[in-house]
Amino acid sequence: MPVNERIVVDTFLRMLDLGGTFVFAIGGGAVGVKHRLDLFGVLVLSFVAANFGGITRDVLIGAVPPAAIRDWRYIAISVLAGVLTFYWYPATRRQHTPLVVLDAIGLSLFSVAGTQKALAYHLGPIAAPILGMLTGIGGGLVRDVLVSDVPNVFRAEIYAVAALSGALVVVLGDILHLPSNPMALAGALVCFGFRMFSIRRGWHLPVAPPPEGPEA
Amino acid sequence: MPVNERIVVDTFLRMLDLGGTFVFAIGGGAVGVKHRLDLFGVLVLSFVAANFGGITRDVLIGAVPPAAIRDWRYIAISVLAGVLTFYWYPATRRQHTPLVVLDAIGLSLFSVAGTQKALAYHLGPIAAPILGMLTGIGGGLVRDVLVSDVPNVFRAEIYAVAALSGALVVVLGDILHLPSNPMALAGALVCFGFRMFSIRRGWHLPVAPPPEGPEA
Amino acid sequence: MPVNERIVVDTFLRMLDLGGTFVFAIGGGAVGVKHRLDLFGVLVLSFVAANFGGITRDVLIGAVPPAAIRDWRYIAISVLAGVLTFYWYPATRRQHTPLVVLDAIGLSLFSVAGTQKALAYHLGPIAAPILGMLTGIGGGLVRDVLVSDVPNVFRAEIYAVAALSGALVVVLGDILHLPSNPMALAGALVCFGFRMFSIRRGWHLPVAPPPEGPEA
Lengths: 216, 216, 216
Hints:
Three copies of one chain form a homotrimer. By secondary structure, chain A is an all-alpha fold. Chain A has one domain (about 5-200). Helix content of chain A is about 75%, strand content about 0%. Chain A has helices at about 5-35, 40-60, 65-70, 70-90, 95-120, 125-145, 160-175, 180-200. In chain A, α2 (about 40-60) crosses α4 (about 70-90). The N and C termini of chain A lie far apart (about 60 Å). The mean pLDDT of chain A is about 85. Chains in contact: A-B, A-C, B-C. Chains B and C meet through α2 and α6 of B and α2 and α4 of C.
């Protein structure tokens, strides 16, 4: 890939990443406010929800220090979103829908950006989408563990599967040598559409049947 | 060590690792089914229980991307075991014994394989068995945290100590320059025997005495 | 910096780190005893509380294997503190004050040492204090997650903010090219003083107001 195109891809990837950071940080801060944490706790949940997935991905592919630590913009955006949420969230908490939409946007951007970064670090077509999905769901998972909830992603409807579907679009584009920015957009749209459509239709994954007879 | 022997050791180590992955993934999936998670949640618990210990070890010794991410067989085996558990576990959940035996096998294989890998990365005779033990107990520990339980390993009878005993056999063999495959087998047998024997005898570690007087 | 001074700095940094390890390990062991864990569980909580923050910092800056794994003294000190706590803590548990003071000492030493190490690995003036703070608060945070508590640091008074204040003193000294050992001492004193003073005065961070009207 020529240098110019490489820079465009990197800029685009960074923009997806920073956008996802902002919307996930708002969601993380909102969980902190709901649990009546103090201002610092809310900021930590904002940062964790927005950056833990990406940090884990970067550690696993050997890209240390992770972008979320090295690049001050991730920290600044997370803190900004956390402060905004801390002061504004209580007045708006009955508006559940925007949070769900923001979260679906974050999931789409992160899954796609995470997959692209894993491919750039030479991970294969099975590992890359898993790392992309991890980028998308990791932050929310640890956010829930920190406030002692069973992670929402384990009970959610179509969530991780939507992230995986977007990641697979990116990998497919990579295998077929299609241009990466349009495929990233397509992957994000597939993830977002799948997630929102499944919410509207009430789709969910199968749950194991209850045990037969008394428990062991 | 000649190249041929090196390859034999690596193949043997990989087989131990993949075997441990399968049995731990079944145990992780079973915990997910018990907590009524959906199919994805069960697969995640399978993967985490089977691979988190090894991933942590690999990150700590600098072997990134970790084998469990880079090598598709770990992912495939974990997913296969998770799907099997999801569909078959409820019918068989009253059979507690097989799970305990499978878990002891996984613990033995992982502790030994983890110690060998740490030694191969030039960790010393104190750090290597700790990393081996961590490989053995790490997955189950995070599995329990994810479903908001206090990790079972903290309350279990002789569990981490059994892992440590197997790891020490491997380190001892390394110090004495004994052939590594037989010592790995010996270590796994020591760990497995110690674990099963302690269950049969009801052995457990000391617990701190209850506090004197009312709590502070 | 001349080689001799470099060695003095390293020795000083290592001493801060080992001192912080001991006091945090006691605090971690005490939490294990309170939750009636067995001896191994108490030792794990000692080790985690004392070393998880530093291990995370080392993984994030690419210093693997982390010092806490590679250097047997961290392990030995953690185990020693854990055993002491296991056998002596119950008799002394009504003495709450010493634990709080020890914890403030550990927080001060770790925040300062963590910031220095991050600077030595060329992290910038925003990332370095965050890694210093993480070194200080990370162990206690995971300690609480392991026993299924909401981490204390989220509800604590001035805790992470005190760690951050000490870290900022170190960064400021680095920017102004002031000698590093005296600035490390100053940073530790600022953190310790801020923490203890805020406890005495009952200071705390703002908490989000309760929601208006019924919950969504």
